[in-house]
Design goal:
Distance between the termini of chain A: 31 Å
Largest sheet of chain A: 2 strands, antiparallel
Order of helices and strands of chain A: EHHHEEHEHHH
Oligomer: homodimer
Helix content of chain A: 40-55%
Strand order of the largest sheet of chain A: 2-3
Shape of chain A: globular
Number of helices of chain A: 7
Chain lengths: 172, 172
Amino acid sequence: MRVSASLDYALRAMVELAAAEPAGRPVKADEIAASQGIPSRFLAQLLAELRRAELVRSGRGYAGGYWLAVSPADITVADIARVIDGPLADVHGLSPELFGPPGVAAPTRELWIAVRAALRSVMEKVTIADLVAGTLPSAVAALLNDPDAWIRRPDPLAAQPGQQDQPGSNRR
Amino acid sequence: MRVSASLDYALRAMVELAAAEPAGRPVKADEIAASQGIPSRFLAQLLAELRRAELVRSGRGYAGGYWLAVSPADITVADIARVIDGPLADVHGLSPELFGPPGVAAPTRELWIAVRAALRSVMEKVTIADLVAGTLPSAVAALLNDPDAWIRRPDPLAAQPGQQDQPGSNRR
DNA sequence: GATAAAGCTGATCTACTTAGTCGGGAATCT
DNA sequence: AGATTCCCGACTAAGTAGATCAGCTTTATC
């Protein structure tokens, strides 16, 4: 899964809005852009999308800016992801349950549905309020307790185990 | 998360190889392409990548084709995904643990690590052998028991609840 | 040995998406 | 009025996805 720059930016912007003091104060796009290091014109586009989806509201002029349209506890990461990036999971263009691989590959459909369910189990559970508080829901935090979750898997193409290349043995 | 056509094709091809009778028989790329409805030239490219990653082996000529290099029980969906699409999760170009969002958005890092862990919990557990058998590991199958896993979420932009558009009320 | 069947490689192509930028307009506050 | 801020659509440059193609090498069969 690649998390797009847009989603990353939008999520961070939402966290900034939720963390703004006093609560509900309009925050300018440029303020967020500066504190989060986001290209400001680009951020403005994302905020406009969030406004059309009615996750934030906006006002113009001197005291203008953006603020959350609903309580941060009622906005999940999935809500933002769906506005910015579309459906959480699709199998090359199709929703997983519409996807019907033929023959012996049919069970791959269930696989993708399970993948979607796994994504939802994190993204629909974590709210903006959780992120501001820095405490994730216990079911999600449980995933992070495994130290293995924090380490990167090796690139499968680098340094094949067992047999290293020898001067004469051409893999080709 | 979008599952690329390449990954879908590669996975289905691997399932076909694992399901081939008698076990270990070379299967031609065109056979797989025909039975799975995959553009055959494109599939050949994917199979070549899988071969370079040593997940399959190949032979040319009359009795040529592809076969699995290791037991289907030892190949996970994640293995294939990493060969075809690269890392399971990255946050606009960075591995989640290298990603360091500033200030108040810092906890979004843990979020993405949790997302990656959730993906791994499915993709590193399901093997090609599971898919051929049609029975997913119990932890994954548990996700599918919830009927909610099978239904699609509504598009957030379609048909806002509560207030419908009225002839005079311009949302702008 | 000729021939046909298969895979191998690298180049190419088109359409789409991503990640931005830009200009001008409209609302709002001082 | 003037400064500030958001609003909107157009534009662009680069990269990726999803193929397609030509020409080559390897291998088995006649």
